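User: I'll paste a sequence; please echo it back and then give the predicted structure.

Assistant: Echoing your sequence first, then the prediction.
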Amino acid sequence: MEAFQVLDISGDVGLTAFGKSKEDAFLNAAYGMYSLITNPETIREKKTVSVTVEKDSPDGLLVAWLNELIFHFDTYGFLGKKITMEHFSDGKIRAGISGEEFDPERHAGKLLIKAATYHKLRIEETKGRWEIDVIFDI
């Protein structure tokens, strides 16, 4: 099963992420987002940061999750290579993100993502697999 597909959206960028479980789809949405920022193969696992987000709904949790990862990139230049989900429920995610700070000499910059949005957001189980559609402001 493919992990994600990039959606062609005028003026913004989006992803459809897939997973055997909702947790896998959330992970693949994060990996897909990182792939929009740079080539993930160039990221090294130099340090691990802890991320915790809580929201009252799966939609809110997904947007908060992705926006927290964007915050770490915007604030610290941190890019994730490997994500270890320590806790996952419809209301809370706690994860360790292994990666490194963006290095323009090694990481080709692709898109500057501002935020994950609720626009056309979809989290759905379809035919035994989970699918997430998410659009990012760029």
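The longest strand covers residues 78-88. The mean pLDDT is 95.
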